[in-house]
């Protein structure tokens, strides 16, 4: 941790006075962290030093490097932001504040669960704070990504749960963020490190597979590299040609896709990409022509990211050719400047400040980032804001067109309704239908690159439908769209929302066979009253599926009815305190995965599994026979009887069974009862894995023409 090593990296591009300020920050941070140790036992200052060292490799500017050295002093010493501002100026203090987590709330007296909940809320608030600061100054995220990279490199010293949690967050947020910013060097390192901790066995398997024929592949890439260099020499092109191995997480994704297609790892030849760097754009196209003359290009495998750059600013020519031995090889052609941006993304901005035009281009490239400031004003809480980031900012993007030919950048998997709300909030509210490429489509249609989307409106439409917020229907997939819809409902009359929420609450409780305690639920979700709970359900801010998912694993058990009517099952059930006990599911209540269960020890036939409350429960005379039980981590397909009320028509049963089959749910029994008024009750026994799948099944069945309602049949109810 000598300053001289850091100075040697920056002396080629920083001014003398900037290096002097950097030295002062180095001494200040080292003193502030004096005596502190990391979990690994090393000096704490090693972490901010390595964070700054990584940024120096990216040639970050002086204030960024100074802020990197100081980024932990506010959190981990008695130094304040005000002191940093006095010592190093407002710019540096602002950057440090942007990456500083919010202070931990220490409740005077609270349960461990509430402490954990507070910690989680605090973490989400800190992420929100970072993203908003990042939208104001992009350098905040450069520091945070470098900080996360060094933390990932030293993750071995944490316990298993912390390693997995941090690695998953890295894969979900920080690696996609690096990709969105075009920072490939950071992206692949973060992905590989996270992959190692999230799926250690698969990581080792992929590593071993790659090593198996490494020498053979390296000989091959040396040969094709030599052949391509010779072709360029003959054509008078000065080019730097090299082979770049693909990183492990990328190979893992390719292996998964190949296995789904019934192909083997041995079939994967493009584990390397040939990178060709030439002098200018004209030479890029010339080099591409030479490569295509040498080897036959594969149809449909050419992409011109120079004429049409990716959303993160990436530019190159990509082609895949049938090279030596008829093996496919990917070739990427770019200029030195394109290469710098491909490797370091927005970090390269500071290396190429050569004029106003480039600055304008840079601003356009991060327009999506500025949208965070708009969302900050629109959303009501940190969790909703982070939902926007995860669904609308970090995923891959698609480009679609308005009828006038304007391009609109949308998150992948967006729908026509998402598009409508992205164009204008009122357009979304008035939407009555949509056309994609001139054809009428459903609201759940997924938009593809190049689609032209036309939104149909009607003056009679009085706003969005609550169905638009139903995740099972897939009408709206972006957080921006959901936020606009929720905002509309929040503005409606409170009494109407209360009545709607109460109806939904009672309907879902009845059809799922779950008796929900509204008062208890409102307290668990920290509502001030039951009316506030109903209001949020009525506006779509809180879904019944969220309530069920949160409460079902945590309800207090009640004694079950002992019954002789049982069904054999292969369901994985754990009898707490007893090993290798035969288990059966009670036919009186048909418990399914996710519901609270309890075991009853029978005489000579193992343990019968009941829902924790059956309708026939009175008092158990022998409570010593009751044993705690729980489901294993792997859900099994379990039988549930449901009833569908509908108006009879030709083809009704066929349509119902088609819907069930489309959701990959099996039907074991079907019966119907017709009435003189033309209605019919159809009873089905479905095999489902959990309550979420059952809830989705009800939503799909109620979309069938003529169906009035669908609900669960059962003599028992679960109380939550």
CATH architecture designation of the largest domain = Orthogonal Bundle
Alpha plus pi helix count = 28
Fraction in helix: 40-55%
- Low-pLDDT stretches are 103-117, 350-358, 553-570, 715-720
* Distance, first to last CA: 57 Å
Structural class: alpha+beta
Mind telling me the CATH superfamily name of the largest domain? Hypothetical protein af1432
User: Would you tell me which CATH topology of the largest domain applies?
Assistant: Hypothetical protein af1432
Instruction: Please describe the biggest sheet, giving its number of strands, its sense, and whether it closes into a barrel.
Output: 6 strands, mixed
Proportion in β-strands: 15-25%
Number of domains: 6
Model description:
The chain is an alpha+beta fold and 720 residues long. The protein is built from 28 helices and 23 strands. α3 runs antiparallel to α4 (62-70), α4 packs across α9 (139-153) and α18 packs antiparallel against α19. The radius of gyration is 30 Å and the shape is globular. 35% of the residues are buried.
Give the SSE layout.
Layout: H1 3-10, H2 16-32, H3 46-57, H4 62-70, H5 73-76, H6 81-88, H7 90-99, H8 112-136, H9 139-153, H10 160-180, H11 184-198, H12 200-212, H13 214-234, E1 240-245, H14 248-260, E2 272-277, H15 281-294, E3 296-297, E4 303-304, E5 317-322, E6 328-334, H16 336-344, H17 356-365, H18 367-378, H19 382-393, E7 397-401, E8 407-411, H20 416-423, H21 425-430, E9 431-436, E10 439-441, E11 453-457, H22 479-490, H23 494-511, E12 514-515, H24 518-524, H25 530-539, H26 544-551, E13 566-567, E14 573-575, E15 583-586, E16 597-601, E17 607-611, E18 626-631, E19 638-647, H27 652-662, E20 666-674, E21 679-688, H28 691-701, E22 707-712, E23 718-719
Parallel strand pairs: 2-6, 12-23, 15-17
Antiparallel strand pairs: 1-2, 3-5, 4-5, 5-6, 7-8, 9-10, 9-11, 13-15, 14-18, 16-17, 16-18, 19-21, 19-22, 20-21
